[in-house]
Write a structure and sequence with these properties.
This protein is mostly beta strands and 179 residues long. The protein contains two helices and 13 strands. The two termini are 33 Å apart. This is Rhombotin-1-like.
């Protein structure tokens, strides 16, 4: 993994996430607020219409999108796979192999896999996961490692020595040296 900076690949430490923090080593353009990936630009009345990078037609609408240093009709900036309108999806887009993609399709096509912290088996990049600090788990593996109690959203759990514990096992000290 390289150490280059990147932003917004995940939403932080959410319980459910589509991926985990990995560096795609410049294979994807991910933009932050300083350089928005997709921004809505107002066309001034005296300004000459610009050409759309999607359809090559003139943009005569009041608003246009600016992405990848080009201008687009709002309906022309779409994911190459699912045709979702990227301007309506937020300000992040991905590009690779001359394709402009939404996050879901980028991860489906080019996503990086990782391993579950509990079972060490592979987790595909598009699979839903549970996260605890820097650890990533299959949904089925996210359980107390002593009593195997599964957690629901909002349940308290404890991470001690990289082991997931339910509140009862953590407070009861059922594991020597865990507390």
């Amino acid at each position: 993994m390289c150490t280059d900076s990147f932003t917004n690949l995940t939403d932080g430490c959410l319980a459910f996430s589509l991926s985990f923090s990995v560096c795609f080593c410049h294979a994807v353009y991910v933009f932050d607020r300083l350089r928005p990936g997709v921004s809505l630009v107002s066309l001034q009345s005296r300004e000459k219409p610009r050409g759309c990078a999607g359809c090559n037609g003139k943009i005569r609408d009041r608003f246009m999108l600016q992405a990848l240093d080009r201008y687009w009709h709002e309906d022309c900036l779409k994911c190459a796979c699912c045709d979702c309108h990227l301007g309506r999806m937020g300000s992040t887009l991905y590009t690779r192999a001359n394709l402009i993609l939404c996050r879901r399709d980028y991860l489906r096509l080019f996503g990086v896999t990782g391993n579950c912290a509990a079972c060490s088996k592979m987790i595909p990049a598009f699979e839903m996961v549970m996260r605890a600090r820097d650890n990533v788990y299959h949904l089925d593996c996210f359980a107390c490692q002593l009593c195997r109690q599964r957690f629901c959203v909002g349940d308290k759990f404890f991470l001690k020595n990289n082991m997931i514990l339910c509140q009862l096992d953590y407070e009861g000290g059922h594991l020597n040296g865990v507390r």
